[in-house]
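Handout, section B. The chain below has 222 residues.
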Amino acid sequence: MVDLCEVRSNRGIMRKPKSGGEADSVKDRAVEPNLNVGLTIRHARLVKGLQLQELSAKAGYSASLLSKIENGKTAPSLVTLQRVAKALDLTLIELLSQTVADGGIVSKAGTRPSVGVAAGADSNRATIRSEVIIPLGRSALLQAFIVRVDAGASVAGKRQHDGEEVGYVLSGELLLTVSETSYHLSAGDSFFFSSRLLHEFKNPGKDIAEVVWVNTPASVIS
């Protein structure tokens, strides 16, 4: 699927990345800061016995940015979280499992967290958002999201990893490209492919595309 950018509530507010290289790119936007994420990063850093400057050197981000993240003053993108998690010798799932509550059997509408806000290539305001169906961190063989893709939004580059993916288009249009072959899907269409095949997608339509997207093994939408 796609590397998306944030763990946020359904009421997260989009914010433009600051200049000076502290955001990965326009395609890697931040949303409303999450103190829980920052506290988790700080705790993991202290457990590893790392100073802020040491984590900065390992992750490739300024100590100033990392300090703001730890104190909940700015929100890390998912790309940033991936790099910080790697620097802490954690997987992204291990990091997120400590910040996203593992709920019960039923999750009510409006209560599920969302992963990511990424700007599309065709519009600075185009975004891709993924609502978590199976709580991150739960011991499960698969992961499921409701992915909402704004008109013109697209993933940044082709993806390839272990696993399988299946999806069902609830509304709108999706241009899915797998192994250099593109498929134009609309409401009611479904897809299935091996995640080992190079894949990417975009919304070529004028309305938001909404897709139920499931992948296995469990991972952050990829």
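Note. Helices lie at 35-47, 52-59, 63-70, 78-87, 92-97. Compare this with the example in section A.
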